[in-house]
């Protein structure tokens, strides 16, 4: 066993014929930067499982192996940048599963669109196939992404346990660890979270529309319309309101899809709370000079 020191972490490593594999760690840094550490060639099974401190990861060109669930359930992980080509790395199961904040997985030759959709595929769609595709970033890769995503949208039932996180007894897919190996069923909160995640993916794909066919774009827009403000299940509108720093990006796509009239816009404004300042201002500006809407704006400021 060897240890490698990097900012924020002491990495515990095993020696392999082709280099060092990280098996565990001590520390709690926000950034895991291994660039320049070419002696490290692999991440072993569960090496960083449930590491809640890490937000950004940088991996060197020497990485050849990433074991099962090595970064699974890193709740605050936002981005992964790899210096090497994706084709040179062997990926295990659920490498980034359950990393709900993950927005980007970048390789040497992948563009921004592919990097962000790849992150969504492996973290939110639980589909590791996209990490192993030899056509990453090509039109065929985007088409497979869309097919997988639309299949996910068509299934609004309870998610299957096997596709959620890792399939092992110590990683539960809804965030509740099991101590006796029993896997619990989907909770209501988990189902609501999945519904909002699907809507967020709709907004993401419409914003990153490379190789998106008009027919598939229409299917995504229909999904949003069926969950818009005023419908029985207005989860698309709820997703916009609760999107935090992404709210304005989501709102612009939502408005382009729904195109609400002044009456509906007024009701939307009244549905907002005092934390939705930017959304509220945008909707009032969109509606123009309208006394009723101005009154609604004044009420929200009280």
Task: Kindly list the characteristics that best describe this protein.
Leucine-rich repeat, LRR (right-handed beta-alpha superhelix); 9 helices; alpha/beta; 10 strands; six-stranded mixed β-sheet; single chain; four-stranded parallel β-sheet; 302 residues
Q: What low-confidence regions span 5 or more consecutive residues with pLDDT below 50?
A: 158-169, 171-184
User: In this structure, how is the largest beta sheet organized?
Assistant: 6 strands, mixed
The neighbouring-strand order within the major sheet is: 1-2-3-5-7-9
Multimeric state:
single chain
Which CATH C-level class of the domain at 1-177 is it? Alpha Beta
- Counting DSSP E segments of at least 2 residues, the number of strands comes to 10
- Give the helices and strands as they follow along the chain: EEEEEEEEEEHHHHHHHHH
User: What fold name stands as the CATH topology of the domain at 1-177?
Assistant: Leucine-rich repeat, LRR (right-handed beta-alpha superhelix)
Which of globular, elongated, flat, extended, rod-shaped describes the shape? elongated
* Number of discrete helical segments: 9
CATH architecture of the domain at 1-177: Alpha-Beta Horseshoe
Q: Tell me, rounded to a whole number, the average pLDDT.
A: 88
Alpha-beta content class: alpha/beta
Helix content class? 25-40%
How large a portion of the residues is in β-strands, by DSSP E? Answer: 5-15%
Rounded to the nearest angstrom, the radius of gyration is 22 Å
Q: Note the gap between the termini.
A: 63 Å
């Amino acid at each position: 066993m060897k240890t490698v020191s990097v900012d924020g972490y002491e990495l515990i490593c095993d020696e392999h014929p082709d280099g060092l594999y990280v098996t565990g760690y001590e520390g709690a840094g926000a950034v895991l930067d291994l660039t320049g550490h070419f002696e490290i060639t692999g991440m072993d099974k569960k090496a960083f499982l449930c590491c809640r401190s890490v937000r950004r990861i940088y991996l060197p060109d020497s990485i050849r192996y990433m074991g099962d669930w090595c970064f699974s359930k890193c709740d605050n992980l936002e981005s992964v940048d790899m210096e090497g080509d994706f084709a040179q790395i062997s990926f295990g199961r659920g490498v980034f599963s359950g990393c709900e904040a993950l927005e980007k997985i970048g390789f040497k030759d992948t563009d921004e669109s592919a990097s962000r959709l790849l992150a969504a595929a492996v973290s939110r769609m639980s589909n590791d196939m996209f990490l192993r595709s030899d056509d990453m970033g090509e039109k065929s890769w985007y088409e497979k992404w869309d097919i997988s995503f639309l299949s996910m949208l068509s299934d609004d039932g309870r998610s299957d346990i096997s596709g959620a996180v890792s399939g092992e007894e110590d990683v539960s897919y809804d965030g509740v660890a099991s101590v006796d190996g029993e896997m619990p069923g989907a909770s209501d909160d988990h189902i609501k979270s999945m519904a909002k995640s699907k809507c967020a993916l709709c907004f993401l794909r419409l914003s990153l529309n490379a190789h998106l066919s008009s027919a598939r774009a229409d299917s995504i827009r229909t999904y949003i319309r069926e969950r818009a403000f005023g419908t029985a299940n207005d989860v698309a509108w709820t997703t916009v309101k609760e999107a935090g720093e992404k709210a304005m990006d989501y709102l612009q796509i939502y408005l382009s899809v729904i195109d609400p009239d002044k009456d509906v816009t007024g009701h939307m404004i009244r549905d907002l709370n005092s934390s939705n300042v930017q959304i509220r201002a945008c909707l009032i500006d969109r509606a123009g000079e309208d006394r009723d809407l101005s009154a609604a704006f004044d009420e929200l400021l009280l």
